[in-house]
Structure formats: C-alpha cells, structure tokens
Amino acid sequence: MRQSLLATKIVWSMLAIFALSTTPSRAFEIEAEQYFAATDGTSEITIMSTADLSVFAPLVLGFQNQNPSVNVRYVVLSSAELYSAVLEGEATPDLVISSAMDLQTKLANDGFAQPFRSQATETLPAWARWRDELFAFTLEPAVLILSKAAFADLPRPRTRQELIELLRDNPARFENRIGTYDLRTSGLGYLFGTQDARQSETFWRLSEVMGALQTRLYCCSGQMIADVKSGKLALAYNVLGSYADAQSESNVDIVLLEDYTSVMMRTAFIPDSAKNSQLAGTFINYLLSADGRSLLRAEIGPGPLDAETFSSDQNLRPIRLGPGLLVYLDQLKRRSFLRAWTSAIVQP
C-alpha cells in the first residue's frame, strides 16, 4: 500500500514537471506572487495588481477574515505589464487592480471588463466609477519627497515655481540627485506627467530644469523613496504619496505642493474572462466597505476614497475616471508627448 502511494506521488510529480516543461513561456514579468490559503478554502480567486504585497496583504487577510472559504492568489506586475497581459489574453485573473487609471479605463472601454453593481458601488460618486465596470477605492496624491539633510539650510519649496527657482539657484547641490518616474516605461508616471501638462505649463519648465541637472529616472515610487532615505537623492518628484507615508522616516519630508496636487485613484475591475466573477465582486464590495476603508486608513499607505477630502483641501485635484483619460493614450499624442518630455528630461 505504501509503495502504491509512493508510486502515485511519483507519477503526479512527473506529470507536474511535464506540464511545466511544456507550458509556453510567459510573455509578462511577475514582480511578486503570494498564495493566501484560507482557513477553510473551498474556492479561489486570482488578483493581478500593481500594489506591492506589503501594501495589499492586510486587505487580503481582512477579506479572508470575512470570507474564510476563499483562497486568494495575489500577483504583482507593473502597470504596463498588467495592461499588456490582459490586453493580449496572456492572463485571465478574476480581478484587476491598478494605479494606472488611464490604462484601466482603456481596457474597460475596449470591452475587457464586465459590469458589476452592488449597494457599495452605487454609493461611489460619478467621478469614481465608470459604466459600472471600473471602480475607484483609494485616494493617493503625487507628492514631493525631500531629504532633510539635503535641505538642512534650504527653504522647502511650496509650489513648482519655487522648486524651479531652488534648483536653478543650487545646481551643484542637486545635480544627479533628483529622481522622478521614467514616463516611457511607467504607466503611473505617464499618467502623472500628462495630468501635470494639462494643469500647468510649469511642468515643461520644471522638466527642462530637472533634465539639465541629470535627473535619475525610475520605474517605481518605492525605489525613489529608498534613494531619498539613503541620501542618494536630495528629492524625488511625483512620488506616490501612499508609499511615501508607509515608508516615511524622520530623515524625509513629504510635501504636497500648494499650486496643485494631482490625486490618483487606485481602481479595480472584473475582466470579461474572469472564472469567479461573483467572488471578485465580493472583494470589490469589501474594498468599499466600512471595514475595508478602515483598514486602508489605519494600517496601509493608500487612503480610502472620501469625496469630502476635496472640499477640505482645494489644492487637491482628483484625476477623474472617464473618457478624458483616453486622450493621451492615442498613439500619436503619446509619441508626441514622450518625444517632448524625453527632449526636456534627457539632456546631454
């Protein structure tokens, strides 16, 4: 009997190895992955997301506390990789969560999302949901991160114009010590950049000044924050504020610029190819529930979506869901924008 069981295990192991060896190579790159086994797991959902595991794990565990029969496979990709994986049909998750609102809107607009309605989604303001397919659940500002050591004898800039003047007056201090997103590769960075350009022409002047100082380009907020904390960077521009709050230390200042602060909303949708759309809807409801919002507020960097936030701070500018987000995804406009930005930020 023991030999029979051993033989069965060997057969199954060989089959698993064969399956892995014959599976086509994945065309998208996974940054991190974790399987959250439930206490009484009888069902499963797969979530593909741009949010780091450290940021989102508490939400998954909170969801499982209320849904102890649901196992959760959580996969982290960059916004561009996630968009391509869904667009090309290389991945079939049950729920897609991303910080790149424009790419999410594009996927929904092109028929990759299925509608979902519930009491929770009906409570969202019109600018935080789109066609009952795409739902926002966080408010996350783009902020300026400063090294306190680098600014020990310098004033903190309150506006982009003050930042421009500060950089121009102190080139030796800031050369090769500024960080920002690489808009050519970062979906979130491109979103913030295009929103900046729509808000003010100051963005282009700032980009030229930063380019002249050999600004370093990054894929992710986390790397920029780490380099400011270590002293490698004196400042980082348009960092995701939720990550900055989560990783802030005494040697770092977080600045919400007073001329305007763009506020991104992390969004979720259920793909049309989802195998467990009902459970995916349950997860969306949890994100929008009082418990989910409380967890976001208390333990995680991203703040919960709260419409009253904007009435209390007029400098906050929410990036609203809707067809306006598709403008800069037009290939001609995208190439033109990136050509102008690259010319400004990448200087010899």
What does this structure look like?
This protein is an alpha/beta fold and 348 residues long. It has two domains: 2-137 and 266-306, Periplasmic binding protein-like II (D-Maltodextrin-Binding Protein, domain 2, 3-Layer(aba) Sandwich); 140-263 and 327-345, D-Maltodextrin-Binding Protein, domain 2. Helix content is 44%, strand content 20%. The chain contains 15 helices and 16 strands. The protein has helices spanning 2-22, 53-66, 79-87, 101-109, 119-122, 160-169, 171-174, 187-199, 202-212, 221-230, 241-247, 277-288, 290-299, 308-312, 331-345, and strands at 32-36, 43-49, 70-76, 95-98, 113-114, 129-130, 134-136, 138-147, 178-181, 216-218, 235-240, 252-255, 261-264, 267-271, 303-304, 316-318. Strands 1, 2, 3, 4, 5, 6, 7 and 14 form an eight-stranded mixed beta sheet that branches. α2 links the parallel β2 and β3. α2 runs antiparallel to α13. The protein starts with a helix and ends with a helix. The relative contact order is 0.17. Residues 1-25 have low confidence and may be disordered.
